[in-house]
Amino acid sequence: MNQPSRLATLYLLGFALDLVNIFIASVAYPDIGRSLGASVATLAWIGNTYLLGLTLVIPLSVWLASRLGERRLMLLALAGFASASLGCGLAGSAATLIVWRLCQGLAGGLLIPLGQAMAYRNVPASARAGLTARVMLVALIVPAVALCRPARRVGRCR
């Protein structure tokens, strides 16, 4: 796999991670509510803090990349995202989960603009339409899959 293909794949994976995390909390709300004793309002915060972090950091991505370098910032964002995901999984309270979701959104918010800039800059002009088609495919498929909660019976989503 050549450099442009690796960058495009990294971008698509980062984009998919962000999309999954936007929708995944809503699928898990019943379980989170039961296990953490969270109210409906608290569950909304669990979902919305990810979007808040994502929205806050995207405008800063160009500035951060110019200070730290794109590659270093991408690695930091991936490490931060993984760490925050672990924190979410280990959260023992709704308040802790909200904080980790914010951290997850801050790290995840860097993946889309950084990956997009790196991929499109390195993909030849003749291949950019194909990359854009793959991005749109990911944007269509990932939310549908993320919202599909496996039912006890195979082949059903609820």
Automatic annotation (TrEMBL):
Predominant location category: membrane
Cellular compartments per GO CC: membrane
Keyword vocabulary terms for this entry: Membrane, Transmembrane, Transmembrane helix, Transport
Domain Major facilitator superfamily (MFS) profile: 7-158
Membrane-protein topology: Multi-pass membrane protein
SUPFAM superfamilies: MFS general substrate transporter (SSF103473)
GO molecular function, one term: transmembrane transporter activity
Localization in the cell: Membrane
Domain of life: Bacteria
Ranges annotated as spanning the membrane: 7-29, 49-66, 73-100, 131-148
Protein name, as recorded: Major facilitator superfamily (MFS) profile domain-containing protein
Gene source species: Pseudomonas aeruginosa
